[in-house]
Amino acid sequence: MRSMLAAALFAMCCAFTAQAQNGAPGEYLVRAGGCVTCHTADPARPFAGGRAIATPFGDVFAPNITSDRETGIGAWTDAQFIRAMREGIGRHGERLYPAFPYAAYTLLSDADVLAMRAYLATLPPVRAATPRNTLSFPFDQRWLMVLWNLFNFTPGRFVHDASKSAEWNRGAYLVEGLGHCGECHTPRNRLGGLKNGERLSGATVAGWQAGNLTPERVSGIGAWRDDELLRFLSTGAAPGRAHAIGPMAEVVSASTQYLSPADSRAMIAYLRAVPPVAIKDARVRTSFGQAARVDLTSADTDGARLYAAACASCHGMTGEGGGPFPSLVHDGVTGALGMSTASNLVLVILHGVNRRTRDAHALMPAFGAQFTDEQIADLAGYVTRQFGDARATIDAKAVARLRAIAQ
Question: Where is this protein chiefly located (predicted)?
Fold first, then answer.
């Protein structure tokens, strides 16, 4: 399903590009806002909702935002749409959960919100009722969102900072508002609110570890060159730095690769200026690991044997890759290695990678159906010891927990 969804998102976004060039600004904004990734569960029915958004309190299902009048937003007024986007209040006055990033969209201008609304109104109607959320008590009580908002939500439009450049202001609008980068890259408190004192310093999303976007040089993007950041946003691959996986691969495939060069540069300029946040005990990811020099065909550990059977055909017996296949050694590959947790690596093994851009198609098969939790723990253990941060350990129980998270 993940590979089918990635292919469908790529095809849709190619269509978006052609149409947006013909003068439909709402399409560009919807794409930049990442709407299609969350609101598509079935690739045959884009924007029809139904995708589970995993939270620590249970799963929230993204609604249908096609023009269907009964199960979508076809019967919504502009005022109702604006209120949902900027205040987190649904058509019938119900409180929306912050899995929908209204806390970021509140910054959007009237013109941009209405342009997005106008584009969504052109989507073919798809009759698809949204599944019931599976939140645990008391988080399933929507009225409690009044209290959540009191402590975690500040409504209001983006205010231009006259002391900053136009590029910085555009980047701030995109990062903090439309692109809502902080929703995934900022740690959250026990109630799911953003820890603004650690803004953009990385967080856990559906089991994945989202990276530190601040200009800190060890764990963040401070040592990245602008051209590396531009390449990552447009292709998802910055060799020697990182490769996009999981949710970020979807963001690149469906959103950031289609940003204008000016908007991409603006985001980078803004991120360069945010306060750097250091991560305790962090070390440079690409400084870990070494090429394997043992004969894996006669390996004497389960992890090494699994690597030889499942990974070596692409990444090489030594892990140094070749051709389109990235090296696992000193490459920060996929953000899975060189971290103090093995969760990203395990999730990549479970679900694979399918990142489509205009320039390339990065594909790694999923092994979740082939390997047991014990086997994946063994394989991840070998890979992290050999090529990554040896501090990153994991056992079968932890693999099982990651396997159970909705993706």
Answer: membrane
Q: How far apart are alpha carbons 322 and 327 in whole angstroms?
A: 7
- Of 200, 241, 248, nearest to 223 by C-alpha is 241
Q: What range does the domain containing 136 cover? A: 1-157
pLDDT in tens, 352-401: 998 888 888 888 999 999 999 999 999 999 988 888 777 788 999 999 99
The answer to the question of residue 153 being in a domain is: yes
* Amino acid letter for position 128: A
Q: Which two tokens stand for residue 197?
A: 């004192």
Q: Is the distance from CB of 109 to CB of 158 less than 8 angstroms?
A: yes
Query: Which bin fits 352, alpha (ψ -120 to 50), beta or left (φ > 0)?
Result: left
Q: Summarize the annotated binding site as residue ranges.
A: 35, 38-39, 181, 184-185, 311, 314-315
Q: Are 178 and 158 in contact (CB under 8 A)?
A: no
- 102/58 Cα distance (integer angstroms): 19
Find out whether the peptide bond into 138 is cis, omega within 30 degrees of 0.
yes
The answer to whether residue 194 sits within a structural domain is: no
Question: In angstroms, rounded to a whole number, what is the distance separating the alpha carbons of residues 332 and 287?
Answer: 9
Q: What are phi and psi of 354, to 5 degrees?
A: -145, 85
pLDDT tens, residue by residue, 104-123: 999 999 999 999 999 999 99
- Tens of pLDDT along 185-233? 999 999 899 999 999 999 999 999 999 999 999 889 999 999 999 999 9
Binding residues for heme c: 35, 38-39, 181, 184-185, 311, 314-315
Q: How many structural domains compose the chain?
A: 2
Closest C-alpha among 331, 378, 370, 327 to residue 352 = 370
Amino acid at 34: G
CA distance 1 to 356: 15
The residue from 127, 157, 187 where one domain ends is: 157
Residue type present at position 87: E
Residues 6+ apart with CB under 8 A from 49: 39, 40, 41, 61, 62, 63, 64, 65, 128, 130
| Cα distance between residue 148 and residue 127, in whole Å | 32
Q: In 359-400, where do the E strands start and end?
A: 361-364
